[in-house]
Structures are given as structure tokens and as C-alpha cells.
């Protein structure tokens, strides 16, 4: 259920949600097309420039919050979801919220609405049972309203009312059984009170309002009162025939014919968030969800989200199950100016036809404008400008070819880890670990991370005069030269100089460091769908080289041919980028890097959680290759590292592992970029889940049990892909467009710090004895290194080979961190 606070905030024009049209809960949105059709009718009935309607909706929203009384005043529950969580996890807190004394509830209600005690006609502050909600009836002399404010779901009794979802006859249609009986009981209890109040205040209007369940019950009460007034005008009079209802986040509980009648007579208004699933979920949607689960279509839905394919047409739903939100639906797209295109066009036409007004007309118009500013229905100018810059073109088709550009670059990156790095090492004649040559090779291989580290921020200084589009071209050139060295000089001409590793890897690292941040910025104007495809190119590049490379090598294919393939793909990728990537007038407007640093307060604080997640992600990914030193060819024991039973070929085992890497990284990226992350809290939750996946994966790897290694790797890379997709979406939606490049640069820079630290620990760990032992039987190398590092010299070593390790690890880490810090000072 959409948060009450978010609904009120959206009506006031504050940005509490992002512009996302796709939500993982879309599987239950069976009524999506019906709501869209109904929305067109509502737009025609109540344009957004109706200030009177919006002002009344805003006041009704405040009354809806006041119905929660002390709980709403203290802000203990932002939404029904949180309320349910508190009920199930912290029962004491729930009991406290539901069992506040009447005096405190009454004081909170009067305080929120600025009413005198005598203006509270009657109230029931807690649900007395199922079908008996909390409510309050009050007089508002400033608005000239007699208000009936019905509380939404807050107690277990309310939840039971929500669960009575059978469709029953209601007036000339059907409706939610629980809410029908609730509204009937409520009217029976307060109808005489309302008749007396309206007789005493004939100029006042009767207004029902509520949030969630309260909004639905309010609309049904209005429908019943108007129906009774039409049948017996003498008994009820105009007060019943002209009453109206305002709902906030009202669920779909009434059949279409009743909803249309309420909308056409302007008897009910509903404010819903564009991303809220509750106004779209009804009996029919839940019914089809159950059918889908039986047919296992949930798996197909995940695959469709991952592949971007269009959903298949569904069977038509039974008319008797169709339910919609009651009344005129004011659908809010959070973060955008609230006026619709139709209303804006109407206003422009009115201004064009407007004749010079009289002075009193000017005054009236001025007063209207002042009222609109008081209601604050639109965002500030700076916020509106920022969001308009971030908006994507509607229905922009994805340019899937951009995935091949990223694939060509990350194939080059894949050549620097795994099988091709091992082949490079053996081609140089370095086959024994623990030697000085092996140590030199490993340190030279870390050059790719040094290159990335330098390029992440350095490109903003060295290539400041060049556009991001030109920097991508330069980056691909660096990668081409870096791959040329092992392909031609080492494998073809027979060079055996270890220094070639450092030159090749640092050039490739420079290219990769420049490419990743600038490429994402350049393709931003192509839309989120294009970016969702492009970022899959990274895991696809690794999968192409590592999975196919391992498979091909098992059939006797020499590694040099894979190097030639990578080299040939880079010009193809450059040609595709040159042909399809936007530039010139379509290129992203980018601020000077120094200017972005001076304005860091605008974008840096929101990126800090993503920096931490990226550091952990790259640290974990850089440590997983240490598995190669856990299990040695030709066979891998699946259950016990010391056993000679249940063995699997080394190449097959790691081919399967790379498949899990590809699945975890690629699927999670596509899902994460489409996740609904409207608030900072939700983004932190998703980031926390991603980091939890990484931590769990590292722990499972530390057990050194081969059979669970693919699952552990899948979790690590699922977390990495989720962090990547969430960050790409966050930068697009919540970082001003001119600072996109700087935010990507810092984000990648922090990730490379984690990668460098991970690479150092792997090498230091091997120096500490893991490799010589043949298999680390109980701990993952990086975790082992960290444990030993922080244990200090005063604690006993884990084995006889490690007494001197802490001093050596401290020395290696200190030296590397000094280099990193000195380089960072130079570049900053």
C-alpha cells in the first residue's frame, strides 16, 4: 500500500519518488490496461489545473492522516507495509500504537487539524472488530465541511477486513465484500449524527476522506448516500446528494460501472502514486497471479525482465471480477510537474484568448496564484529543471548494438584474469609459484588496476578539453594497444620479458578506466533500456572468453587464437560505437570536473552508499580468482578437499563456475536497473541486500567445498550486478546530468581501490603458504589474509608456515596504500 506520507508529499509537489514506470511487482498488475483506459476518462473529467479540486484533495489528505490520531501524529507508521512488519516483528510496538488512550488520540487529532474540542462531533479511535474501523466526525468552519475521516489499516482486525475480498453485489455493480459491510455498518452508526449536523449547518458540505481502506470505505459511503438521496430526496435532501469523498492510495474495490458513475458525477476523487501497485491490484489480478504461479509463469516473468521481451497476451478476465479505484483518479508521476500535458495546453489556450482583464479580475487572478503557491503543488524551479533534464524520451527503443561495444572492451579485460592470464604467464616461462618471477608477474598483473585507478579521475584532467565521446574512442585505442602486446609480441614473436605484462596491463587498465565511466555517460541520452542492454556487455565479455575459452582449450585450441579474436573484436566495437553512439547536439551536457567537485554537495552525499557497496563488490570479485589456487588440475574434489572421490575435471568445474558468474552478473544488472527505488531508504535496502549476497558468497567460498563454489560465486556476482544496475539508475535519476561523469568517475575509482586491495591480499596470501599447501582446507584466501593481518604478531599462527606472515602482509599493504594515496593526491 502506498505510504500516506508519500501521497501527501506528492500532492504538495515534493519529490519522494523517482520516475519509474516498471516495478518488480508488475506480475500482479492484471488491471494495468483497464486502469489506463479508466485514467483517460478521469483526465477528461478533472484536468490538473482545477485548483479547487487539488486544494480540497490536499486538505482531505491531511484529514486522512489525522484519522490515525496519535499514531499519525508521532509518525510511527509510514505505510501499511511497515505497520504489518511492526506487528509481526515488534508486537509490543504494535500494541502501543493500537492501544493509545482516547484522550491522547483526541488531542493528536485536534492538534493536527487545528480544531477546537467542541468541533469534534464523535470519534472511534480504534477498530472494535472486523468491519468496524476507526473514524472521526468533525466540523471544519474554515472549510465549511462536516468531515468524516476514516482510518486505514492499522490493526489485525483491519487486516481481516482487507482479506474479505469476495465480490458481492453493491448498488448496480459489485464490490469488495469486507469494505461493503464496513461502509454499511459505518453509515448505520453515524447517519443520524450526520443528518443533525447538516441540518444545523445547511451551508456546509459533507466530505468523507481516508487513506487506503479508509478511502475505499469513504467512497462507498458516498455512493450509498447519493443512491438513497436519489430514491428519497425528502428524507435525505441535498446534503446527501452533494456529498463527496476523497481517497489517498485507495485500492481497486468497485466495479467499473460504479467507478464511472462516481467519476462523472464528481462524487469521489482518488490520488494515487503512478508506481503504487495497490490501485491496480484487485480480485482479478490476484486470481490471475495464482493461475500464473500454478503455471510457473513467475520464472518466465523473471526471464522476460532479464531479456526485455514483450509480455504475451493474457486471457480476458471475467467481467464480474473487474475492480477499479473509485472516482476520478488523480494519478501522480512523482518528481514531475503535476500539470498534465492536456491541462498545460488548455491553460496556454486560455492565456492566448484572454482579453485585457479589469483591475478586480487581476486581483482575483493574483489571489488564485497565491493560493496555488500556498498549496505548493509544483516543485521548485531548480528541482523541476533538474528532473526535466533527467527525463528519458517516452517509448524510446533500445539500441541493443551498444552491448557489443561494451562486450568488445570487457573481452579485453577478461584476457587479464583467469585462463588467458595463466596462459600468458606460462608463455613467458613462469610456471612455478613462489619464485621471484612469479611474484614479479603477479605484481605486474596488478598494473591493470593501477591503470584503472589512474584513469578514473585522471581522464578528467588530462583529457579535460575532449568530449566524453572522444574519450571513449581513446579508451578503445588504449585497450587495442594493450591487447596487441601479448598477441603479437609475446605469443607470435616469442618475447619472454616480464616487463611486457606491466606495459600491456597498465595500458589496458587505462583504456578500461576511461571507457567505463565515459561510455555510460555518452549513452545516457539513448534511454534506460539501452543502458540496461549495454551493461550486460560486461559479464557477456567475460563469459565469451572464459566459458568459450575454457571449452575451446579443452579441445586443443591454442590460446593465441583467442587473443587474436579479442584483438579483432575491438575495431568492430569501435566502428559500432562510431556509427550508433550519440554525439554533437545529442551528447550529454557535462560540467567541468573541477566544477563538479565544487558542487559536490549536490550529488556526492547520495553516492556514498554506492561507493561503499562498489568497494566491497570489487574487493570480493578480485579475490574470487584465488579459487584457482584452492583447486589444482587435473581434478577437483567436489565434497572434501582432501578426498580422492567424487572428482570432476578441473576445466569442466571452472567452465560451470563461469556460467554461474555470467548468470548472476547479467540477470541482476537488468533487473536492478528497473527496480523501483523511489526513496533513499529503499535504495539502501537494495544495496544492503546486494552486499549481504556478496558477504554470504564470500563465506561460502571460505568453506573451500567445491560443490557449493558455483552458488557462492553466483551470489557474489549477483550482488555485484545489482550494485551496478542500482548505481546506473541512481545516477540517471538522482544526480544532476552535468555531474554524471564525475559521479561515475569517483564511483569506479572507489571500486578500483577495493580491487587493488583484493589483488594484493591474493598475492600476499599465496606468499603465505596457500599455494604450497595444495589446498586451503577451511578458509578463503582473502579472508585468511585479513584474519592474519588484523590478528597481529601476539596471536598464534594458523600453521607452522605462517609465523612471519603478519609483518609481511602489513608491509605489502602499507607500501601499496602509500602509492595509492600519493597518486590520489597528484590527481586531485
Automatic annotation (TrEMBL):
The gene is DAGLB. The keyword Oxidoreductase does not apply. Keywords: Membrane, Transmembrane, Transmembrane helix. Residues 342-392 are annotated as: Disordered. The chain crosses the membrane at residues 472-495, 501-520, 532-555, 561-581, 647-664, 684-717, 744-762. Residues 147-282 form the Fungal lipase-type domain. The keyword Transmembrane helix applies. Signal peptide: none annotated. This is DAGLB protein.
Amino acid at each position: 500500500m502506498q505510504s500516506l506520507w508519500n501521497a501527501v508529499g506528492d500532492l504538495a509537489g515534493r519529490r519522494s519518488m523517482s520516475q519509474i514506470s516498471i516495478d518488480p511487482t508488475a506480475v500482479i498488475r492484471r488491471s494495468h490496461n483497464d486502469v489506463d483506459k479508466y485514467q483517460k476518462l478521469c483526465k477528461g473529467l478533472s484536468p490538473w489545473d482545477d485548483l479547487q479540486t487539488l486544494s480540497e484533495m490536499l486538505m482531505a489528505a491531511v484529514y486522512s492522516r489525522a484519522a490515525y490520531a496519535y499514531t499519525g501524529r508521532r509518525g510511527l507508521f509510514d505505510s501499511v507495509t511497515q505497520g504489518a512488519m511492526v506487528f509481526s516483528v515488534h508486537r509490543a510496538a504494535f500494541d502501543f500504537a493500537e492501544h493509545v488512550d482516547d484522550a491522547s488520540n483526541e488531542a493528536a487529532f485536534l492538534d493536527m487539524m487545528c480544531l477546537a474540542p467542541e468541533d469534534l462531533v464523535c470519534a472511534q479511535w480504534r477498530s472494535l472488530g472486523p468491519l468496524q474501523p476507526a473514524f472521526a466526525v468533525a466540523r471544519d468552519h474554515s472549510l465549511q465541511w462536516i468531515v468524516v475521516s476514516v482510518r486505514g489499516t492499522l490493526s489485525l482486525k483491519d487486516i481481516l477486513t482487507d482479506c474479505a475480498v469476495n465480490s458481492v453485489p453493491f448498488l448496480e455493480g459489485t464490490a469488495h465484500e469486507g469494505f461493503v459491510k464496513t461502509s454499511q455498518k459505518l453509515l448505520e452508526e453515524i447517519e443520524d449524527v450526520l443528518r443533525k449536523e447538516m441540518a444545523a449547518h445547511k451551508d456546509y458540505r459533507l466530505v468523507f476522506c481516508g487513506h487506503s481502506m479508509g478511502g475505499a470505505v469513504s467512497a462507498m459511503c458516498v455512493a450509498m448516500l447519493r443512491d438513497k438521496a436519489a430514491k428519497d430526496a425528502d428524507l435525505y435532501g441535498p446534503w446527501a446528494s452533494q456529498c463527496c469523498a476523497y481517497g489517498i492510495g485507495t485500492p481497486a474495490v468497485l466495479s467499473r460501472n460504479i467507478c464511472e458513475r462516481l467519476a462523472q458525477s464528481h462524487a469521489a476523487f482518488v490520488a494515487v502514486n503512478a508506481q503504487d501497485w495497490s490501485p491496480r491490484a484487485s480480485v482479478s489480478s490476484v486470481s490471475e497471479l495464482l493461475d500464473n504461479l500454478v503455471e510457473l509463469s513467475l520464472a518466465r516473468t523473471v526471464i522476460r525482465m532479464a531479456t526485455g521481451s514483450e509480455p504475451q497476451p493474457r486471457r480476458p478476465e471475467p467481467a464480474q471480477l473487474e475492480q477499479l479505484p473509485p472516482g476520478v483518479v488523480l494519478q501522480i508521476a512523482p518528481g514531475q510537474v503535476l500539470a498534465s500535458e492536456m491541462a498545460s495546453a488548455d491553460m496556454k489556450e486560455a492565456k492566448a484568448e484572454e482579453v485585457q482583464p479589469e483591475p478586480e479580475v487581476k486581483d482575483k487572478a493574483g489571489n488564485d496564484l497565491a493560493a496555488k503557491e500556498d498549496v505548493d503543488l509544483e516543485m521548485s524551479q531548480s528541482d523541476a529543471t533538474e528532473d526535466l533534464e533527467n527525463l528519458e524520451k517516452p517509448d524510446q527503443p533500445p539500441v541493443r548494438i551498444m552491448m557489443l561495444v561494451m562486450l568488445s572492451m570487457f573481452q579485453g579485460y577478461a584476457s587479464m584474469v583467469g585462463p588467458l592470464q595463466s596462459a600468458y604467464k606460462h608463455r613467458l616461462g613462469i610456471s612455478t609459484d613462489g619464485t621471484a618471477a612469479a611474484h614479479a608477474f603477479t605484481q605486474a598483473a596488478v598494473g591493470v588496476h593501477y591503470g584503472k585507478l589512474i584513469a578514473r579521475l585522471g581522464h578528467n584532467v588530462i583529457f579535460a578539453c575532449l568530449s566524453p565521446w572522444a574519450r571513449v574512442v581513446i579508451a578503445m585505442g588504449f585497450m587495442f594497444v594493450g591487447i596487441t602486446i601479448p598477441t603479437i609480441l609475446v605469443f607470435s614473436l616469442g618475447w619472454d620479458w616480464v616487463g611486457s605484462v606491466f606495459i600491456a596491463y597498465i595500458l589496458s587498465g587505462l583504456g578500461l578506466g576511461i571507457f567505463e565511466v565515459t561510455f555510460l555517460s555518452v549513452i545516457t541520452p539513448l534511454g534506460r533500456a539501452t543502458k540496461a542492454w549495454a551493461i550486460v556487455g560486461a559479464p557477456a565479455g567475460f563469459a565469451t572468453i572464459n566459458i568459450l575459452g575454457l571449452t575451446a582449450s579443452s579441445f586443443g585450441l591454442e590460446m593465441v587464437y583467442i587473443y587474436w579474436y579479442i584483438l579483432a573484436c575491438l575495431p568492430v566495437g569501435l566502428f559500432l560505437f562510431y556509427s550508433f553512439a550519440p554525439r554533437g547536439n545529442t551528447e550529454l551536457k557535462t560540467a567541468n570536473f573541477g566544477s563538479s567537485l565544487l558542487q559536490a554537495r549536490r550529488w556526492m552525499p547520495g553516492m556514498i552508499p554506492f561507493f561503499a557497496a562498489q568497494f566491497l563488490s570489487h574487493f570480493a570479485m578480485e579475490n574470487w580468482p584465488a579459487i584457482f589456487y584452492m583447486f589444482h588440475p587435473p581434478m577437483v574434489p567436489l565434497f572434501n578437499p582432501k578426498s580422492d572421490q567424487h572428482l570432476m575435471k578441473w576445466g569442466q568445474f571452472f567452465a560451470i563456475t563461469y556460467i554461474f558468474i555470467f548468470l548472476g552478473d547479467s540477470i541482476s544488472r537488468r533487473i536492478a536497473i528497473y527496480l523501483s527505488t523511489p526513496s533513499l531508504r529503499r535504495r539502501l535496502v537494495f544495496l544492503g541486500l546486494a552486499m549481504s549476497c556478496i558477504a554470504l558468497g564470500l563465506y561460502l567460498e571460505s568453506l573451500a567445498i567445491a560443490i557449493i563454489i558455483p552458488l557462492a560465486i553466483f551470489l557474489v556476482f549477483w550482488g555485484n550486478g545489482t550494485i551496478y544496475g542500482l548505481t546506473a539508475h541512481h545516477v540517471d535519476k538522482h544526480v544532476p546530468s552535468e555531474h554524471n561523469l564525475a559521479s561515475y568517475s569517483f564511483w569506479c575509482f572507489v571500486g578500483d581501490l577495493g580491487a587493488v586491495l583484493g589483488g594484493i591480499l591474493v598475492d600476499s596470501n599465496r606468499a603465505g603458504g596457500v599455494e604450497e599447501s595444495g589446498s586451503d582446507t577451511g578458509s578463503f584466501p582473502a579472508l585468511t589474509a585479513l584474519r592474519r593481518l588484523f590478528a597481529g604478531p601476539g596471536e598464534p599462527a594458523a600453521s607452522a608456515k605462517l609465523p612471519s606472515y603478519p609483518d609481511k602482509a602489513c608491509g605489502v599493504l602499507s607500501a601499496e596504500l602509500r602509492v595509492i594515496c600519493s597518486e590520489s593526491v597528484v590527481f586531485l
